[in-house]
Amino acid sequence: QVQLVQSGAEVKKPGSSVKVSCEASGGTFSSYALSWVRQAPGLGLEWMGAIIPIFGIANYAQKFRGRLTIITDESRSTVYMELSSLRSEDTAVYYCARDRTTSRPHFDAFDVWGQGTMVTVSS
Amino acid sequence: DIVMTQSPDSLAVSLGERATINCKSSQNVLASSNNKNYLAWYQQKPGQPPKLLIYWASTRESGVPDRFSGSGSGTDFTLTISSLQTEDVAIYYCQQYYSTQITFGPGTKVDIK
User: Fold this and answer.
1) pLDDT band at residue A26 under the 50/70/90 scheme
2) Which of A47, A50, A100 sits opposite B103 (nearest CB)?
3) For A47-89, what is each residue's pLDDT tens digit?
């Protein structure tokens, strides 16, 4: 059974960047879409973008285009999310999540989630 | 983007009673190619990541108790908990994955009355 293990909590200054990793273990990695979803304190879930490692092309939510980069390192079965120009509103728990199947062209529901990474943006 | 709305924002139900959550999408999420609704339901408890309950609008994920059921098609969907248990206290989110711009509903908080 695949597990997604994320990197640890981060504290960042406004205007800086943060890079969060998500390592997949125990299962196939490359063919499944992996998404990033964030959740600000007390608020709902917000999809940020996704990547299919075998293709290496990311799809971003309009809101984050220009500020978000999602890349993969297949040799490490790891996906990275880098968010730049951080502001206080980016304070949130960031989750990676894997599609349930490898079906295309649509995405699928997310059946495996990472444990979450708290990113705090504060001066 | 497809906008997802949920109602109610919160509800309190007695133990053993039925809880019903509604979800509406601003656009159709039923694919004509395979007649599947690209709609999922998640449960989230405090301090935990979301857990997939239902996909294709009505297919229960493996291991999910059968008191959880999903229904609906096109733009209107419902999650029903037939007999609420204490462990069902959580926030429930619907999600559409029809579009390449995935979106979630705002969530519905379920509590015990």
Assistant:
1) confident
2) A47
3) 999 999 888 889 999 999 999 999 999 899 999 999 999 999 9
Fill in the amino acid letter for B49: P
Q: Do A61 and B107 touch (CB under 8 A)?
A: no
d(CA B6, CA B8): 6
Cα first-last separation, chain B: 36
Give me the residue label for tokens 């993969």.
Answer: A72
Instruction: Determine which of B3, B102, B103, B109 to mutate to test the interface with A (most A C-beta atoms within 10 Å).
Output: B102
Burial class (CB in 10 A: 0-12, 13-18, 19+), A33: buried
Element (DSSP H or E) covering residue A108: none
pLDDT by residue (tens digit) across B26-47? 999 999 999 999 999 999 999 9
**Chain B partners of A114 at a C-beta cutoff of 8 Å?**
49
Q: How far is the C-alpha of B78 from the C-alpha of B20, rounded, in Å?
A: 7
What are the distances in angstroms from CA A91 to CA A14, A35, A45, A62, A69? 10, 18, 13, 19, 17
Distances (CA, A) of A88 to A20, A91, A117: 17, 6, 16
B95 part of contact set with chain A, CB < 8 Å: yes
Structure tokens at A25: 């273990």
Put simply, whether A68 touches B (Cβ < 8 Å) is no
Interface contact flag, B49 A44, Cβ < 8 Å: no
The residue-averaged pLDDT of A18-23 equals: 98
Q: Does the structure show a pLDDT above 90 at B76?
A: yes
A36 and A54 Cβ atoms separated by less than 8 Å: no
